[in-house]
Amino acid sequence: MDASKTLQNDNKSTQPLPLSDSVQEAMAVAKRGVDELLIESEFAQKLARSEKTGKPLRIKLGLDPTAPDLHLGHTVVLNKMRQLQDLGHNVIFLIGDFTSMIGDPSGRNVTRPPLTREQIEENAKTYFAQASLVLDPAKTEIRYNSEWSDPLGARGMIQLSAKYTVARILEREDFTKRFKAGTPISVHELLYPLMQGYDSVALQSDLELGGTDQKFNLLVGRELQKDYGQEPQCILTMPLLEGLDGVEKMSKSKGNYVGITEPGNTMFGKLMSISDTMMWRYYELLSFRSIAEITQFRKEVEEGRNPRDIKVLLAQEIVARFHSQKAAEDALLDFDNRAKGGIPDDIPELSLSGAPLGIGQLLKQANLCPSSSEALRMVEQGGVRIDGDAVSDKGLKVDAGTFVLQVGKRKFARVTLS
To answer: How far apart are CA 77 and CA 236, in angstroms?
Structure first.
C-alpha cells in the first residue's frame, strides 16, 4: 500500500479542540510558501493542544552533511524552521551523520557514492554554524542520528526492516524508474527511508520538514511512529528553490547557487542577476517581509515602478541577514560602481610570468575562466575587458605590465605580468 495513500486523520482526540485566533495565525505562518502540509487538521489540533498545555511542539529538520557549505536553497526550509521557532516551538536540527554513510537516493538515477566517516565529520563541523545564521542557536536542539542508529546493531536493523515491505519501498518514483530501466539499486539504498523514518521515532517528532523531494521519506517516518505506538508526525514540504538560471534547482554542482558564506558583494551581484519574474519566487521563499508588503511591491511594479528597485531591496535584505546592514549598503554601492564601468575595491591581485601571454592563457591563469577555450569564447562574446577597454581579438598577446582584467560583470583581477 502506498504510504501517501495511508494518510488518515487518526487524531486520537474525539473532541477537537477549538482553534483560537493565535492558533489560526500560527497555521497561516506555517502554511506560507509551503508545497504541502499534511495533515492540516491534525497539525491545527497539535497547535491547539500545545497552546492549551503550554508544551511546545517538537519540530524536526534533518540534513545529511554531503557538502561543506550551505546555499540559499537550503535556507528555504531553515527559514520555515525559524518562523516556527519564533512561535515558541522546539526545533531540532538533525545532522544525518549515520544516513550520510548510506547516501540519500531521493531523485537519483544511480547509486550515490557513500561518504567516508572523515568526510562526514568535516562537513558536519560547518553545518550547524552556517544553519545558525538563520536559526536561533540558543533555542535549537542539535542532534546526530548516529546517537540511536549505531546502537541499533544488526539485530535492531533486521527488526526495523521487518516493519516495511519491499513493495512499498519500490513505490518510490525514483526506485520505480531505476527498477524498470534495469539500473542497479543497492540493498543499502532501500534502508535509507527506514533510517530517516526511525529518526522521527527516536526524536518523537510532532512535525518534520523537508523539500518536496523528501515527501516519501517523511511519510515513512509517520508510518513507523504508528508502528511504535507514537502519535504520527505531520509533514511539511517546502518547494525546491530554482537557481540563478531560473530553471534548475539551486545547486553548487550546477553553478547556479548563492552560498550563504560568500562575500556580501558577491551575494548581492548574484541576486541582482535573477530575472524580474524569478524575483517574486525568491521573495516568497527567502524574504522575511510580510505577505502584505510583497503584495504591495507587486502592485507598485504593475503600476510602473522599476523592478530593479524591488530587487535591490531583496538583495540587501539577504546580504544583511548573512553579513550586516553596512555590508548590504556597501554591496549596493559596489554594484552601482560596476554598472557604471567602475572597478571594485576588493578584487584579487596576482603576479604572473610569461609575457607576452595569449589572452586565453592569461584569463585562465588569472582564474577568471576555467579554460583558455572558455576565455576565447568570452572574448568572442564581448565579455572581456582590460583596464576598461573591450577585447575583441582572440589572438591578442598581452605585454608585461600591471592592469585590471574583467570577465563579464562580476569577475575582476589586478594582474602584474612579467
So the answer is: 9
Total domain count for the chain?
3
Residue 282 lies in a domain: yes
Q: Which of 313, 267, 280 is nearest to 133 (CA)?
A: 267
To 10 degrees, what angle do helices 72-86 and 21-31 make?
Answer: 180
pLDDT digits (tens, 9 = 90+) for 56-90: 999 999 887 776 678 999 899 999 999 999 999 99
- Amino acid at site 63: L
Query: Which residues, 6 or more positions from 231, have their beta carbon under 8 angstroms from its beta carbon?
Result: 12, 206, 225
Checking if the pLDDT of 364 tops 50, the result is: yes
Residue 295, helix vs strand vs coil: helix
Q: Which residue shows C-alpha cell 517538537? A: 58
pTM value? 0.70
**Same domain as 290, residue 197:** no
Least confident of 31-40, 200-209, 245-254: 245-254
* Contact criterion met (CB below 8 Å) for 27 and 40: yes
- Of 288, 310, 339, the residue that ends a domain is 339
DSSP states of 160-182: HHTTS-HHHHTTSHHHHHHHHHT
Per the domain annotation, does 273 fall within a domain?
yes
Report the 3 state secondary structure along 35-57.
Answer: CEEECHHHHHHHHHHHHHHCCCC
Q: Which of 321, 339, 357 is the last residue of a domain?
A: 339
| 252 has binding-site annotation | yes
Distance CA 418, CA 398 (A): 10
Here the cell at position 352 is 604572473
Is there a contact between 27 and 82 (Cβ–Cβ < 8 Å)?
no
Q: Which domain holds residue 287?
A: 264-339
70 burial class (0-12, 13-18, 19+ CB within 10 angstroms)? buried
